[in-house]
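User: C-alpha cells for inosine/xanthosine triphosphatase, please.
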Amino acid sequence: MFIAIGTKNKAKTAAIQNIVSKYFDNLEFEQFAVPSNVSEQPFTSDETRQGAVNRALNTWHASGADLNFGLEGGVHEIEGHMYCCNWGAVALKDGTVITASGAQFLLPEEIAEQLRAGKELGPIMDDYTKQQDIRSSLGAVGIFTAGLVDRTEMFEHIVKLLIGQYLFLSKNDK
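Assistant: Done. Predicted C-alpha cells:
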C-alpha cells in the first residue's frame, strides 16, 4: 500500500507512520512538500480544517497514492481565549476525503497576543522556548502540557480517527 504524506514535518510524519503501520502491511511511505492553500497561520477551526483537506488533496494529485494524508495545526478564539486546534484529512485513491479533528488546548495570553499581532505559532514557540523547530518535536502542546502530550502523540489521535473511518467505510462498501 502506497501512503503519501503531505508534509516534511517530523512530528506529523511520525504520527502517520506510527499509526498506519499498526493497521496495514507492505507499506511504502513517501513525503511530499505540498501547500495548504490557507494562511501560514490558520486562524479559525474552519481554515485549519480546510488546510488539512487541501494538503490531502494536493498530496493525492502529486502522488496518486492509496492514502494521502494532510495534517494542519491552527488556532481559534472562544470567548476571548486563544486555543490551538488540529485537523487531519485523508484523500483516498478515488478522491474521497475523510476528515477528523483532535485536541484543543488553551494558549497563554502572551502567546495569543503575538498571534493576534500576525505572527505564526511555530516561530513564537521557538522564541518562547529558546529552541529551534519546536513544531517538529514537542510542539506547543508539549510545552503547555508539561510534556505529557507531544505533537506526534496529538496527531496520532487524529490519524487513528482517520484510519478508523477509512476502515469503517471500506468494510461497509462491500
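User: Anything notable?

Assistant: The domain at 2-172 is CATH 3.90.950.10 (Maf protein).
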